[in-house]
Amino acid sequence: MSIDFSKTNGLVPVIIQDFRSNRVLMLGYMNQEAFNKTKNEGKVTFFSRSKNRLWTKGEASGNFLFVKEILIDCDQDTLLIKAKPQGPTCHTGSTTCFGNETAKGFLYELEHTIQQRIVSGDEKSYTRDLMQKGINKVAQKVGEEAVELIIEAKDSNDDLFKNEAADLLFHYLILLKAKGFSLEEIEEVLKSRAK
After folding, report:
1. pTM of the model
2. Which of 58, 88, 164, 181 gives the lowest tally of CB atoms within 10 Å of its CB?
3. Contact, 115 vs 177, CB < 8 A?
4. 106-193 maps to which CATH number?
């Protein structure tokens, strides 16, 4: 990995991304010394422009960023570090310096849309109608979609398989809402199993 520190007066921008969620956590700058320290110690170290010194993220708070992967852009003057955060990244206590409402992906947007449809009062909404039929009907629908997915998995029509997979995910998200849980809570269970 050859980084061109000369293009930017000895400092390169470094984007920090959560290695699991791909959520952007922060932006900092590194000089050659900070980069070397980061590689050698496995904790993200920046060059602080305000303090005019090396600064290891978490040195005061204990909220370190543990390096999982370092990538360089095509111009060799910007880094992307995928890291495992130990606690919140932002000095405000937020997970990310870009606000806690940063999009986590389409499934989270869909979860939000489902919630809006449930409370909208729109009588034409399929989602709202299904929720009003109760937990048994929602669970039954998830079961039906799971069976349809299994049937399509045995055939060779990829489009039908993908559509049934999408139907199952959609109805699963409705079931989570019906049970009072969020996708993020299920994600946390999966993360705990990965430890």
Report:
1. 0.60
2. 181
3. yes
4. 1.10.287.1080
